[in-house]
Structure formats: C-alpha cells, structure tokens
Design a protein that fits this description.
- The chain is of the alpha/beta class.
- The protein has two domains: about 70 residues, Orthogonal Bundle (Arc Repressor Mutant, subunit A), CATH 1.10.10.10; about 160 residues, Rossmann fold, CATH 3.40.50.
- About 55% of the residues lie in helices and about 10% in strands.
- Strands 2-1-3-4-5 form a five-stranded parallel β-sheet, with helices on both faces.
- Helix 6 crosses helix 11, helix 7 runs parallel beside helix 11 and helix 8 packs parallel to helix 9.
- The chain starts with 6 loop residues before the first helix and ends with a helix.
C-alpha cells in the first residue's frame, strides 16, 4: 500500500510531474536545488512511491520515454500535448507487454465454468465494469455489476462457489473491494483482479491477477482521476479472448 506523502514530499512530487521530461537528465543535487528541497526528501519521496531511489526512478522514466511514435508529420506540436500522447501510448504498450497469456487462459476457463459472473467496481472503474457486464450478457453469460459499497460488502458474503468475481480497481486499495475480496478468499470463491498494482491488498487476495501499467504522469495531480486506459485494455483482451474461445468450443 502506498505511503502517504508529507507536505514537502507532495510538493516535490508535484514539481517532478510538472517537469517530468527534464528529470531524467538531472542529478539528485540539481533537482534538490531546483525544487528547493533536501536530497533526503527526494530519497524518501522516491521510496514512498515504490522506487529504490532517485536513480531507479530516472531509469524508469527513460524506459517509459522509449517510444516509436513518429511526430515527423506534425510541423508544430505543443510539448504538453506530445507528452499526453506518449503517456497513453506507453500505458497501452507496457500493459500489453505485462499481460501473461497463461493468466488470460486461466481466467477464461474460470469464467466458462462459472454459473454467474459478479463484477465489483468503484469510481471511474465502474465505466469499464459496465462495458464488461454488457458484453458478457451479449454472449448469454449471466453477469451482475455492483458498485454500491454497502451492497458490495453484503453481496460478497452470500456468493456461491459456482460464482466467479471480477474486481476492477486501478490501485487495488479501495476498502470495500478489499473487504469483499477477503470474504471471497475465506469462502473459496473464484476471483479475478484487473488492476495496475500487483502489490496491492486486492491483488494478494485474488486468485488470478491481470496487471496493467499505470504512468506516473497525471494531468490532474490534485484529484484521483487517473486514466483507466490500462484497465480498459485488459478488459477488452479478456472479453475478446473469451468470445474467441466460446466460438472455438461451438465449432467443436
């Protein structure tokens, strides 16, 4: 679970995200001078964000900026818009690289053998979950979606072993989803997590975990409205793979 930043650390992180393109070329001393914070603050912030240190964070950024997008046909492009395009491309490409076909296969088999699909989601993830529910229903698979926190907690206590539960959560730390996953774990209910945080409480509780890549860049730093693009990519692959497998079963 991500540790809360102090006021100074939060200021530093906001400075870093605002100047993200310059960070890979800065030393920790130079960043300290520019942001007017101590090197100790930089190290603490990096560790709270899940990196071994500032150098590890810079390596991460350089990998993220390794892109094949060609902007040659655009005479002039605002640097911030270009940054947005690259952010989305990286989230898609790195999510695709992180998906394990074996986990997809296991998930499909669990879904096929279940009597009911129960999807739990909160916040902006509800939009992806709603699309999943409709697509499962279009394949004549029974599927419910629950987004109310009280219903999620209560519903998770009354599931059957013939059910399969799919959690859609960006950070995997939403309290009611974690509680529901704990209930499923205790009752030995099959669970699938679609998330971007493989170290989250939700990921540790779920049987199968499909993990996407979440960029550190956010254009709404003061609000928790990060892109659910990685979750959408995973959901689409899971649904498409399920339909393909169903068609193969019919042909047999």
């Amino acid at each position: 679970m991500e540790v809360k930043l102090s006021e100074t650390e939060a200021y530093l992180w906001k400075y870093i995200t605002k100047n993200i393109h310059e960070i890979p070329n800065l030393s920790i001393i130079k960043l300290s001078e520019l942001a007017n914070v101590s090197t100790s603050t930089i190290v603490r912030t990096m560790k709270k964000k899940g990196y071994e240190g500032f150098t590890a964070f810079k390596h991460h950024l350089k990998d993220e900026q390794n892109t094949t997008i060609n902007f040659a046909n655009v005479e002039k492009i605002d640097s911030e818009i270009k940054r947005s395009i690259l952010k989305n491309e990286q989230e898609v490409i790195r999510t695709l690289n992180m998906i394990h076909t074996g986990v997809i296969e296991d998930a499909i088999q669990k879904i096929q053998s279940s009597e009911r699909i129960i999807i739990f989601a909160r916040g902006f993830s509800e939009l992806i979950a709603e699309e999943m529910k409709i697509k499962f229903q279009l394949t004549d698979k029974y599927c419910e979606l629950h987004t109310d926190p009280n219903i999620i907690k209560t519903m998770s206590k009354h599931l059957k072993k013939t059910d399969i539960v799919i959690f859609v959560s960006l950070n995997g730390e939403t309290e009611e989803l974690v509680d529901a996953a704990q209930n499923c774990y205790q009752k030995e209910i099959g669970t699938i997590a679609i998330t971007t945080n493989k170290e989250s409480p939700l990921s540790h509780l779920c049987e199968l975990v499909l993990v996407g890549f979440k960029s550190e860049i956010s254009f709404f730093p003061d609000y928790e409205v990060r892109s659910r693009l990685p979750l959408s990519v995973i959901a689409r692959i899971l649904l498409d793979s399920y339909v393909i497998r169903m068609k193969q079963e019919i042909k047999r």
